[in-house]
Amino acid sequence: MALSVELQVNNSTSPTARYVTWAPSPCRIRVTNPSGTTTPTVSVKLGSVSAAAGGAVGFRSGTSGAFATTLTLSVPINGTSVPFFVAGRFPQASTNDGDVTIEARSGTTLVGSVKVMVRIRKNAVKLTPAERARFISALARLNNQGLGRFVDFRDMHNSATNVLAQSHGIPGFLPWHRAYLLDLERELQAIDPSVALPYWRFDQAAPSLFTLDFLGVANSTGTVRFSSTNPLQFWRASTIPGVNRRPLFNTSTPPPDLLTEAQTIALSSTYPNFRRLMEDNPHGWAHTSFGGFIRNPATAPHDPLFFLLHCNVDRLWAKWQQQRGRFDPALASSYDNSNTRPGQRLDDTMWPWNGVTGGTRPATAPGGALASSPAVAAPGPQPRVRDTLDYHGTVAAASRQGFDYDDVPF
Ligand SMILES: [Cu+2]
Question: Which pLDDT belongs to residue 363?
């Protein structure tokens, strides 16, 4: 027997917690077998090995300071844990599960290792074929031909349940959809933990999105066809099987007249105007650049494209927050706390995750609590509006929600 250590990612021994983002993940190392040691502590050097086209990580010992490619720690042989932090090295995201190996060495001897993934939401047109296949496979399994858990996500975004008054044309539009996407993403990750939601960057051409092997190709009446190997061919989210989506633009170009990313971020420096203006253009205009399901809020989530569209809306908010320093709920310009409808103020919990029905809330609350993550604790099963703002823990490390975007650094 020889010296060995245990590496805990996100302070967990579970392989299901070995997913990191650009934000610092709290980690621990402890000696599990002190054989051969003669001193009360051993010096262990942490480093990492990345697969080709894989992610990259950095290390630091405390809660502040720069991340480095290696970190040397003094670890007691009595089994006491020593904390450290790991973060993905922006912009080098993983393409496969466990494509980064964290190694612990004593001298040149490997004494412990663990595989992690830098799991990041990416531009859909930049996914590898394998990433694309894993995403659509997980989404199709969640849908299960209309019989799966996806039905709750359909029903959460449905005019019949009055959801539109909770989450559209109102300050909570961005927080509500952030929680909604995260809930869905966590359900996909329960099926395949290597999946992160991709986004449709609708101000750029995305021809590879509108193909038989990805989100399908529409005929003139909007019936979307898929290739015989695409599991989305069995998609069903309404009384009509399949997807109805009629692009009103040439899908080898972006939809015309949508604000660009730079124009969107320039809309306003304060949340009330930013939210109000961007909900219309580009968000609303992206929806109405199609006929079919995605055009109308009550049916929009019947089309898988909805989730990629909204992932980009969320990314634009994230990028606006990052460029303008708007992660802190205590800063007035980070949010619009003036609306008194339930679910709109910072300290309000949000429907449906809070289970509250009746009155000004919808009559039913599909789906129950927000899905938990093995890697992070936030935003919790019944998120408040304020819990959605600091999504990668810029203001408070405990707010980290376990997602990040490929072009929005920590
Ligand atoms: Cu929308």
Answer: 86
CA–centroid distance, residue 125 to ligand 1 (Å): 20
Between the CA of 10 and the centroid of ligand 1 the distance, in Å, is: 33
- Measured CA to CA, the distance from residue 230 to residue 206 in angstroms comes to 19
Asked if the model's pLDDT at residue 14 lies above 80, the reply is: yes
What is this structure's pTM? 0.97
CB contact at 8 A, 259 and 282: yes
Say how many Å lie between the CA of residue 224 and the centre of ligand 1: 20
Distance (angstroms) between ligand 1 centre and the Cα of 311 equals: 10
The size of the chain, in residues, is 410
- Rounded CA-CA distance 340/64 in Å is 38
Quote the ligand 1 centre to 297 CA distance (angstroms): 7
Quick: pLDDT tens for 83-101. 999 999 999 999 999 999 9
| 41 in Cβ contact with 3 (< 8 Å) | no
Q: Which residues of 216-248 are buried (b: 16+ CB within 10 A; e: fewer)?
A: bbbeeebbbebeeebbbbebbbeeeebbbbbbe
Q: What is the pLDDT of residue 192?
A: 98
Ligand 1 centre from 301 Cα, in Å? 9
How far does residue 310's CA lie from ligand 1's centre (Å)?
6
Q: Pairing state of beta strands 19-20 and 109-118?
A: parallel
CA of 303 to the centre of ligand 1 (A): 12
Whether the Cβ atoms of residue 83 and residue 403 lie closer than 8 Å to each other: no
Three-class DSSP category at 364: coil
Measured in Å, residue 331 CA sits from the centre of ligand 1 at 26
Residue pLDDT, tens place only, 201-244: 999 999 999 999 999 999 999 999 999 999 999 999 988 899 99
163, pLDDT greater than 70:
no
Residue 186 has pLDDT above 70, yes or no: yes
3-state secondary structure 124-170: HHHCCHHHHHHHHHHHHHHHHHHCCCHHHHHHHCCHHHCHHHHHCCC
CA distances from 85 to 46, 121, 134 (A): 11, 21, 29
